[in-house]
Amino acid sequence: MSDQRLFLEKASHYVGRAKIDLRHFRFERNLSEVRTISDKQVENLVNGFRHHGCYRLKPDNYVQALISSDVLQHALATQRLERQDLLGDAEPRDLELPADAFVEVLHGRHRLLAAERFLWDKWWIADLYVDNLPPWVEAVMREEHSNAHQFCDGDIYRNLRYYQSRESENEEEKWRARLSSGKRDDLDRMDLKARRLRRAFDRLLPFKGLWSALKLGYLGRLLRLRSSEELVHYLDRIHRIYTHILGGYQPGLLDPKTVSKIETLTPSFSSHDAARARQMMSRRQIFPAVQSQDHRDRILDRILSVRGRILSFHTFFQDFLYFEACALVLRGLLPTPLEGAMREMFSRSYTGVNQAPGNCRIQVGETEFLSRPGTREASVRLGYRQLFLAVMLLDFETERTREIRALVGRDPEKGVARNLLGHLRPAERYDVDEERTDELATTTRQAAFGIGDKPDPLGRMHRVDPTNHAGGAHEILDGASSALGSEGFLGQGMNEFYPIQGDQAPSAVIKQFRLAREVVVIFIPKLRLYAKFSSNPEQQDVFKSSAQSLVNKDYRFTVIKDDDRVVVQKLRGLWEAALDCKLVVACPKSNPSSLDTGNVIGTAEDFYRFIDSQH
To answer: Which of 24, 92, 313, 436 has the fewest Cβ atoms within 10 Å of its own Cβ atom?
Structure first.
C-alpha cells in the first residue's frame, strides 16, 4: 500500500463537507471496533470545550464519515443543492438528512460524544465519503488520525487478534508495531509456550467492554510464574460471569463504563451491592445501550444472581499481585530450575504421608485437622490450596507494609491539623516546639472535626460488626456512626446505629420507641444499639441492607403488634411489618424469640420481662 494509492482512493470517494445534526451520526458498524470509547477522554474534551472553546469550523476538528449515495442524493435534491456546493473553502453548508438516515463515523467518536454533552445547537462538520470505500482504505481511516488519543493495550490486542484471524499480515504487523519491543516479545512467548492462556484471553474478545483494563506490561510476570492453569481458571470465570449476565444478548452491549461500575460487586451475598446494582440499572448508569425495560430487568436479575465477586481484567491484575506474592514464596520450596508448571511440580512431590486411603486430611486450625472422604487426586488439590492458605497467613514485612502500618496507626484528623500548623509556622523559619505543636494539633483537631465527647458533626461513616460489641459506642453495620450523644433517642441521624445512653432497662427503651411513631426503628437490646429509618418507599433498600447484615450475624426479628401480641418476623415482609409497627427488635437466635417465624411468642409484658432478664 502506497501513500499515493491511499490518496487517490480517498479523493475518488470524497463528496465534500457539511454540517450534520448529531443525531445522524452512527458508530455501530465499526467492524473491528479499533478504539474503545473512553469516558475519561470524553470528559477531557468537554472540559476543553468549556475552558478553551469549541472550534467546530477548524478543519482539524472535522470528523470523517461514510454516507450512502442514495441518502446523499435525496438530501441534495430536497435542499436544491449540487455536489459542488459541498466542496470549496467557504463555511460548510447544513445538510438536512431524512429522519431515519445515518452517516457512519470512521473516527471522531469521542469528539461527537463530547459535543452531545456540551453543545446546545447539536451539529458537527463531517468530511463525507461515499460508503463503497475499499475495506483497506476504510481500515486506515478508522485507525489513524492526528487528534486521536493513544490506543490502550486492550485496543491493540483486540485488533492484533482480529487481523490475525483474517490472515492480514500487513495490518497485523502495523498493530504489533504499536507495542513496545518487550510487550511484543511477551506476546510471542505466550503464543509459543502458553497457548492455553492465550486461548483464555481470546475467549473474552467479544466482550469489548472488558478490554480497556488490559495491561500487557504484566504479561511477562504472568508467564514467568508458570501458573497458567490458575490464571486460565480465573479468565474462564470472567467469561462465565459475563456470559451469564448477558444471557444470550450481544456481547457488544457490555461497555467499559458498565464494567467499571459492576466489577468487584457481590450482589448475591451483599444486600448493599444488590441495592447498588438496582440503583445503577434504574438510573441507566449501566448497560445504557439496552433500551427495552424488559431486557434491562432480565439483565439485572442475572447480575443479582452472580455467585461471588463480579470479576474483570482490573480484578484479574489486582488479584494476580497477591497470588504472585504467595507463589514466589512457594517456589522457594521447589528445586531449580523449574521443570514444568508449579502445580505439576508440587503434585509430583505429593507422598501421601499422614493421609489415610480414601480420605482427605484438611487443616482447619493451627493444630486442628478434619478428615473427609476423598480420592488421592482430591488430596493433592486440597494440599496445593492449603499451601497457598498457609503462605497467606505469613506476615509479609516489606517497606510498603511498614508504611501502611505506620499510616494506620496515625490519627488522620490530627495529621491534617499538624500540616495546617506547619504551613502557618514553617520549620525553616521558626523554632518549633514539638510538644507544644502536638498539643495545638490536638486542640485544632477537636475544633475542626468535633472529635471528643460531643457528637461528631460530620457524621463520619464506619463499618462494624455487631457481634463484636463490648459496650460503649461501638459501630455497627454498613454506614454506622460512632457518634455519642445526649440528644434523646430520636435526636440522632437517620440510617445509622447509635448507642443508647444511660442505664434504662431495655423494656423502657422499647416502650419509648413504640410511642415515637413518626419513624421506623431497629433496636438491638443485647448491644443497646438502635437505628431509625424514614418510612418513605425509597428507604426500603437501606432498611433491608441493615436487616440483612443482622441476619448474617444470626439475629432474628420480633415485632410488637398494636394489640400487644409479640410475633417473630422473617426478613421477607419485615419492611411491611416495620411500617405497621414502627419498631423491630433484633435478638440472637439463641433467645426464645427464635421460635419458628410467624409464631406468637407471648404478650408485650411477657416479652419485656424476658428482655430485661437477659440484659
So the answer is: 436
